[in-house]
Specification:
about 300 residues, alpha/beta, Rossmann fold, binds adenosine-5'-triphosphate
């Protein structure tokens, strides 16, 4: 099957202050992929490039096998985008004005679906843009992005500012959206619980550097914290061992549970306890492995 999105060797820099890339990944249809990374890592810049609102300095981006600028209209009609900050037309006064614009721009606009989404997020159709709260803007942005039944949803921190009821409604609605098996979602988020509940794949980006793309379940199966009775210098060289702390019992973090388990058993120092790792701890160790630590940004110069 043709990838819904292919990002190849994409690089972007802002003056001498920020370098993003090279980014390389592709998304098969039917999956949810989360983009995770600290503030200022380039997640929104990536999303803006996918919508042709920012331009890569190098590399190529293909959506549905098409590229910008030639196929921009087709790409955008098949995509639902929730930006980090919605910038709407100043002339719009009520939701009706937005609907008029969206239903004209998207031939596949579904009136009933939009009404369903308005109800789901408890949005009043008479809502006015002036003075609209951050959370309400976000809910409206999600409803507008989904009502034309896009093939790909690009969600930039969609639950930022949402109350817990709206967040839950969004997660359930995204699950429903995925039911046909042909839709795809790429979402940036800082909420690990959201990644756990929704994502099939995770792309880690740290201060512009892509640390990897992983299948979430594989990541959670392979990365473990294990405890053994005694420390040994050799265990630090065992396959997968990322960190070893304490003197007895010793806590070992591994990215390759089975290999580490075997090596420890062969050494006669068997595992006495195993725990799953949270995604944020996995991310922390990946950052260390790649030599990036919190707050250490890469400059272009
Ligand atoms: N238009 C721009 N001009 C100059 N620098 C920019 C511009 N847009 C983004 N940047 C810089 O690019 C870097 C990445 O920003 P970006 O918003 O893409 O990160 P992010 O991962 O989405 O962050 P957050 O998690 O805080 O939303 C930051 O250092 C930011 O200041």
């Amino acid at each position: 099957m043709e990838p819904v999105l292919t990002v190849s060797d994409v690089r972007k820099h802002y003056d001498n202050r920020f370098v993003l890339g090279p980014l390389n990944f592709s998304l098969e249809p039917g999956y949810i992929t989360a983009v995770v990374g600290p503030n200022g890592s380039g997640k929104s810049t990536l999303f803006r490039m996918l919508m042709s609102l920012a331009y890569p300095d190098e590399g190529s981006i293909r959506l549905f096998g098409r590229s910008y600028p030639e196929n921009g209209v087709e790409i955008k009609r098949r995509t639902g985008y929730v930006p980090e900050l919605s910038e709407w037309d100043d002339s719009w006064r009520t939701v009706k004005d937005a609907v008029r614009f969206y239903s004209h721009w998207y031939p596949n606009w579904q009136k009933d679906r939009f009404q369903e989404l308005m109800q789901l997020y408890s949005l009043d159709p008479k809502l006015r843009f002036k003075g609209m709260s951050k959370g309400v803007r976000r809910k409206l942005s999600i409803a507008l992005a989904m009502a034309h039944d896009p093939d790909l949803l690009l969600l930039d921190e969609p639950s930022s500012g949402l109350d817990p009821f709206a967040s839950r409604a969004m997660v359930e609605d995204i699950h429903r959206f995925m039911e046909s098996g042909s839709k795809s979602v790429l979402m940036a988020t800082h909420i690990m619980d959201e990644v756990k509940k929704l994502a099939d794949y995770v792309i880690f980006i740290c201060y512009g550097q892509q640390l990897g793309m992983y299948e979430k379940d594989v990541l959670l199966d392979e990365w473990k914290a294990v405890w053994v009775e005694r420390s040994s210098d050799r265990s630090k060289q065992f396959p997968g061992v990322m960190e070893s702390s304490g003197s007895g019992p010793v806590r070992i973090v591994t990215s390759s549970f089975e290999e580490t388990r075997q090596a420890l058993a062969e050494e006669g120092n068997p595992i006495i306890k195993t725990e799953s790792l949270e995604l944020d701890e996995i991310f922390y160790h990946l950052m260390n492995k790649h030599g990036v630590s919190a707050g250490k940004e890469r400059g272009a110069g």
